[in-house]
């Protein structure tokens, strides 16, 4: 009797885009190298991962297996684009994601057991206190919009240009004038200033590519907290790509996320188990409600997320 392989013409349903993330989360937790880390918490880690998301038809990579505070991520992106290095404008909007670093520094320097709420209240209400204790150093937005530049000052001397190099403005100009260029890149990894940053950039290199009237982005992230940070990182990169595409009269194409050290903290086991027990669903949409005059003129009111019905939030500690 001859064995005959039979193939069905029935197509399998497409995989939900979020399944890529869940598969990666499972791989890191079950196969990752257990190692010590800067925070002392410990991680399981793999080296090198890629996830791809289509941004067509307003699609946006928002995790549905847990609630993601997308407005917090959007406010952080607008803060990056403002070039600020202070947490004051963030905490004034109720965004706490950068507070732990200066708070820890203040506690160590003063010995004061101040709560986060008390510290943030002083940051908001006391400009002198914010100037001393709310500064993060030359972090993301500073490098994106004011990369250090030195100009001749006579007699073989150089002085620092206070405006620096606005990589974002240059990027948009390049996309408009020479879309086929292979140099549509900006970075936050300024080797000379890493030691002055509260946290060296994790999402460090962005490259853009234009084809068929669509703008795509590759983000290289040297270090990724898969349990907490990833959800913000991919949403923020997609948002930025949409904003830049709008400013350049392009449609959004694809977001390709590349991770270097991709890890899960050992104290996030409950998060991993809970999230992997859930099934992703739906197709959230990101709408840009207005086209400002420049990339630097967007506000939180310009963004709307629709068709987003996530499952419950999963809390987990941030490693500082």
Task: Give an overview in words.
The protein is α+β, with helices and mostly antiparallel strands and 320 residues long. It folds into two domains: 14-83 and 165-320, Thymidylate Synthase, Chain A, CATH 3.30.572.10; 86-136, no CATH class. Helix content is 32%, strand content 22%. The strands form three sheets. It has a six-stranded mixed β-sheet with strand order 1-2-8-7-6-5. It is globular and about 70 Å long. The mean pLDDT is 94.
Features:
six-stranded mixed sheet; single chain; Thymidylate Synthase, Chain A; 22% strand; globular; 10 strands
How is this fold's topology laid out?
Layout: H1 19-31, E1 33-35, E2 43-54, H2 70-82, H3 88-91, H4 100-110, H5 116-125, H6 127-133, H7 140-146, E3 150-154, E4 157-160, H8 167-177, E5 185-187, E6 203-211, E7 214-225, H9 229-247, E8 251-265, H10 269-276, E9 285-288, E10 303-306
Parallel strand pairs: 7-8
Antiparallel strand pairs: 1-2, 2-8, 3-4, 5-6, 6-7, 9-10
